[in-house]
Amino acid sequence: MTAKSAAAAARATVYGYPRQGQGRELKKAIEGYWKGRVDADALRATATELRRTNWRQLAEAGIHEVPTGDFSYYDHVLDTSVMVGAIPERHRAAVEADALDGYFAMARGTQDAAPLEMTKWFDTNYHYLVPELGPDSVFTADSTQQVAALGQALALGLTARPVLVGPVTYLLLAKPRPGVAADFDPLTLLDRLLPVYAQVLTDLRTAGAEWVQLDEPALVQDRTPAELNAAARAYRDLGGRTDRPKLLVASYFDRLGDALPVLAKAPVEGLALDFTEAAADNLDALAAVGGLPGKRLVAGVVNGRNIWVNDLEKSLATLGTLLGLADRVDVAASCSLLHVPLDATAERDIEPQILRWLAFARQKTAEIVTLAKGLGGGTDTIAAELAANRADLASRAGSALTHDPAVRARTAAVTATDGRRSQPYPERAAAQRAHLRLPLLPTTTIGSFPQTTELRTARADLRAGRIDSAGYEERIRAEIGEVISFQEKTGLDVLVHGEAERNDMVQYFAEQLTGYLATQHGWVQSYGTRYVRPPILAGDISRPEAMTVRWTTYAQSLTAKPVKGMLTGPVTMLAWSFVRDDQPLADTARQVALALRDEVNDLEAAGTSVIQVDEPALRETLPLRACDHPEYLAWATEAFRLTTAGVRPDTQIHTHMCYAEFGDIVQAIDDLDADVISLEAARSHMQVARELAGHGYPREAGPGVYDIHSPRVPGADEAAALLRRGLEAIPAERLWVNPDCGLKTRAWPETRASLENLVTAARTVRTELSAS
Q: Phi, psi (5° rounding) for residue 429?
């Protein structure tokens, strides 16, 4: 096919779409089902209608081929585990008794069976359920869900393409199940898994699929020759079968690198590549292998992870370069649109001109369609769209919101000394012990306590004008008093005020900093039914006034025990926002760090002796390629130290991280120079404690003993057993006792019971230590 005919054949498609619905109908239906207010048939009906709505929106916008299989009740990797029969033995009976309840049991756990481990999906804030495998794992095909979704779309008269997690990525994401040697490599199961994928492909072809997309984002990471050979073998096997649909292998989030020639040579009909995160690298690599003659190329030229409008002319130039490198070039977003909100037009509180800078999923869909039209018919066919796009880009570039001379001058004046504590850790630790006088194995929580219906109602009433600020603050004071009283009665050692006034750990601060925009309807799935509204980091950042001092000081006035000040760190403020793309991330991080430094210093001046600066996204934001790690970790750790280094030696700085592969960044954790770190460890059975010990981590640490992402209540014996395991790696004088994460999403009954058990466990182990 000539470049001209390839352009004429250009089609628009996407890899996935937000699942929740305009009003988060899916969240409400699932949580209603968990609480017994919604039955299974009603939940399935809601899901069916949401899929139908999504596909119709896409088709009406001009998308030629809609995705199926991207919709999920909880997580698409968990769906893949069900598809291939990788059900943990502890959940098998529940799944066999009731598939839907068993599915949710794997995700959330039950009182008798722990859930699957949860961690971040590559470098996004989406969490997936980690497959558990062992050398005796047996796979069986169950394509029921995938076939049903495809059938629903085809019945609507749509061209549909099922999207599945690819077999290589699935195994690379998996971990050895509990009881299996830690050095077991799930990739050794590939030959056992491929026939199951082959059966699913056959089932989808029989059901009417012309194309099936197999997502292999793990191949954009550094891969060994053995892993690349496994990918080659997988697609030689699947591509060599005759009873299958056409195969489109997709990668995203970074450059494909050494895996590109492997996939280019594979007997598959198409590749989908990301031309936003690593456009030049993927372009060069594609040209180096001689293009994809006779194959389909889906070009991800619209950023599927951020919310800024596309530069249409730049994207058209990239698409034009790709013509001639493939038999057919189609246009798409760089990845699933799961990672952005649904529709920017729902926002009423953002200035109309600024709103034109933003593109959520529906707007990105329109951009994809426009680009496909321009590629196929020439720029004259989209002249009006190009003119409007140029005006929007110029408006943003020239806005006073994006440039504050005072902020830039302060950032430029930062020196290395500003990021160093005044004394080394051993001297600080002695000063903090003398000042705080905490017991061995001190107990604490991570920060937030349950956000009750009454709190959410009060916040909504304030926004709607049904109560005034005085009435709202009275409710917050009462909630803080209840939280402090409960912690004292329970026997916790370092208390928190519970964060009753906070809507979200990033949004709360973003709403009080200059340069940020907040949305009302910009919901994005984080995990399961947990949705967040990432703020938009649009301009230069500063802090007009104190953000947390008032409520922290009030909480401290209610108790003689230390109350932690709670802040979200600079890297997490970036990672869980839609960050500006018009300057280096390091520059933005430094601006945020300086604003937070002012808050830390004000907390200390108000009498706060323990200050926690959470950085759960430090590992999440780690670049996918090792060669990019040093630069990122240098500015990320510098930003944390810049935030925290201005305090006295006897002020104890904490940080917190959760649900990530901490072993990859232990040196960076050390480089933060925090006095205490708390980390998720319950689901991973204290793996992080062993990783810290292996590194020789010299400071205090609290590996979690209570998994807060499950409704189950861990017994005191269970928590004590985890503590004893932690003590095998971390000396008692440096070990803290705490949950894995904040308690915002939990209900009060399970929170009370779990924290009481946590304190009991700490006392039990303290007694054992004193007797030994």
A: -60, -45
How long is the chain?
Answer: 772
Provide the pLDDT for residue 260.
97
User: How big is the CA angle at 504 (ends 499 and 508), to the nearest 5 degrees?
Assistant: 80
Per the DSSP assignment, residues forming a β-bridge with 563 are 495
- Nearest Cα neighbor of 263 from 242, 291, 284 is 291
Least Cα distance to 643 among 668, 666, 605, 673 occurs for 673
* Number of other CB atoms surrounding residue 79 within 10 Å: 20
pLDDT tens for each residue of 209-257: 999 999 999 999 999 999 999 999 999 999 999 999 999 999 999 999 9
pLDDT of residue 55: 98
**pLDDT tens-digit profile of 321-358?**
999 899 999 999 999 999 999 999 999 999 999 999 99
CB atoms within 10 A of CB 608: 24
C-alpha span between 482 and 113 (Å, rounded): 32
Burial (CB count within 10 angstroms: exposed 0-12, middle 13-18, buried 19+), residue 388: middle
Work out the number of other CB atoms within 10 angstroms of the CB of residue 28. 16
Half-sphere exposure of 68 (CA within 13 A, CB side): 29
Edge-first strand listing for the sheet containing 564-568: 564-568, 610-614, 652-657, 676-679, 700-703
- Confidence category of residue 425, pLDDT binned at 50, 70, 90: very high
CB atoms within 10 A of CB 405: 8
Give the model's pLDDT for residue 278: 80
- Binning pLDDT at 50, 70 and 90, where does residue 460 land? confident
Query: Which amino acid is located at 357 in the chain?
Result: W
Residue 730 dihedral angles phi and psi, to the nearest 5°: -125, 130
Query: Is the pLDDT assigned to residue 711 strictly greater than 90?
Result: no
- CB under 8 Å to 303, separation ≥6 — which residues? 276, 310, 333, 334, 364, 581
Look at residue 534 and give its three-state secondary structure: coil
pTM score of the predicted model: 0.89
Q: State whether the Cα torsion 347-500-658-670 is positive or negative.
A: positive
User: Rounded distance, CA 498 to CA 21, Å?
Assistant: 30
Structure tokens at 714: 């861990």
Q: What does residue 120 show for φ and ψ, rounded to 5 degrees? A: -80, 145
Beta-sheet strand order (sheet of 270-274):
66-68, 160-165, 211-215, 246-250, 270-274, 292-302, 326-333
C-alpha separations of 550 from 476, 544, 561, 651, 681 in Å: 12, 15, 18, 19, 32
> H-helix or E-strand containing 364?
helix 361-377
Identity of the amino acid at 641: R
How confident is the model over 651-671, as pLDDT tens digits?
A: 999 999 986 677 789 999 999
Active site residues: 709
Give residue-wise pLDDT tens across range 540-591.
999 999 999 999 999 999 999 999 999 999 999 999 999 999 999 999 999 9
Beta bridge partners of 120: 127
